[in-house]
């Protein structure tokens, strides 16, 4: 990990109407790591991710990408730098999977420019690594929730953005696909990508994330190394459940109880 975070959040505050959803968010995300974003329902994880890619803009504070305020970057440049895999992958319109994944190349094309051979190779690669090549000629609306999640990840990979934000990308996946996605993210991390993933499965997060940011009612409760973030007392304070750690041959697993 490098000293200068590729993604830095300074005193971020965000409200919708008079509902203050995020307040005093300050944290940095270093390159080449998987950063977990954890917190109870409604704690602000999706809202923060949306603020980090400028779908929504904070009213207070700023977001710096490679040290530059992201408001100073063009939308095109920002889309080349940051991509978001949204939680809800359903679309209001029908589009073929291959065309949907190809949308990931738009930030790299000029207006009305056709896909080049290099773009098509990248799309092919994104379909392959996510195991979604078999769906390429199907309308995305006809896929299951889990299949659509994988296709959304393929679109994100096609952007080649160095920062990948994922909003609960494993929520609709069966356990085998969950592990495959987390292994895929590990490979991307090892290749130098910065990954910020909101995730409810604390056990999976404990196993795969390098750092963790714990949100509670729109504020940061903890931001730092994952091992400390999953301390029993901390989980109890944030989620109001007890937790035990058990050592397995694959590392530490968490066991929850009320
Ligand atoms: N479009 C919106 N309009 C008004 N309030 C919203 C909107 N989106 C989110 N909120 C509110 O912001 C708060 C945080 O929501 P958010 O979806 O960011 O939480 P989350 O941590 O991602 O939750 P979950 O784990 O359930 O997905 C909630 O109180 C929610 O009701």
Automatic annotation (TrEMBL):
<dbReference type="InterPro" id="IPR003593">
    <property type="entry name" value="AAA+_ATPase"/>
</dbReference>
<keyword id="KW-1278">Translocase</keyword>
<protein>
    <submittedName>
        <fullName>ABC transporter</fullName>
    </submittedName>
</protein>
<dbReference type="InterPro" id="IPR003439">
    <property type="entry name" value="ABC_transporter-like_ATP-bd"/>
</dbReference>
<dbReference type="InterPro" id="IPR027417">
    <property type="entry name" value="P-loop_NTPase"/>
</dbReference>
<keyword id="KW-0813">Transport</keyword>
<dbReference type="Pfam" id="PF00005">
    <property type="entry name" value="ABC_tran"/>
</dbReference>
<keyword id="KW-0547">Nucleotide-binding</keyword>
<dbReference type="GO" id="GO:0005524">
    <property type="term" value="F:ATP binding"/>
</dbReference>
<dbReference type="InterPro" id="IPR017871">
    <property type="entry name" value="ABC_transporter-like_CS"/>
</dbReference>
<keyword id="KW-0067">ATP-binding</keyword>
<comment type="function">
    <text>Part of the ABC transporter complex HmuTUV involved in hemin import. Responsible for energy coupling to the transport system.</text>
</comment>
<dbReference type="GO" id="GO:0016887">
    <property type="term" value="F:ATP hydrolysis activity"/>
</dbReference>
<feature type="domain" description="ABC transporter">
    <location>
        <begin position="7"/>
        <end position="242"/>
    </location>
</feature>
């Amino acid at each position: 990990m490098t000293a200068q975070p590729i993604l830095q959040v300074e005193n971020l505050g965000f409200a919708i109407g008079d509902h203050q959803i995020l307040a005093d968010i300050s944290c940095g995300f270093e390159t080449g790591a998987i950063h977990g974003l954890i917190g109870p329902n409604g704690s602000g994880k999706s809202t923060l991710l949306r603020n980090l890619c400028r779908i929504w803009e904070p009213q207070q504070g700023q977001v710096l990408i490679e040290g530059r305020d992201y408001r100073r970057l063009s939308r095109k440049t920002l889309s080349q730098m940051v991509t978001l895999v949204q939680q809800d992958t359903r679309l209001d319109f029908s589009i073929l999977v291959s065309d949907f994944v190809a949308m990931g190349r738009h930030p790299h094309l000029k207006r009305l420019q056709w896909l080049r051979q290099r773009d098509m190779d990248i799309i092919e690669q994104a379909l392959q690594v996510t195991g979604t090549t078999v769906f390429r000629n199907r309308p995305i609306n006809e896929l299951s929730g889990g299949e659509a999640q994988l296709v959304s990840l393929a679109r994100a990979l096609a952007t080649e953005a160095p920062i990948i934000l994922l909003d609960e990308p494993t929520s609709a996946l069966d356990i085998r696909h969950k592990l495959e996605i987390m292994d895929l993210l590990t490979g991307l991390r090892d290749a130098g990508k910065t990954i910020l993933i909101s995730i409810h499965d604390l056990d999976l997060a404990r196993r795969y994330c390098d750092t963790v940011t714990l949100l509670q009612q729109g504020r940061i409760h903890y931001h730092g190394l994952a091992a400390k973030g999953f301390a029993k007392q901390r989980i109890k304070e944030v989620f109001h459940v007890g937790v035990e750690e058990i050592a397995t041959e694959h590392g530490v697993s968490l066991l929850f109880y009320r």
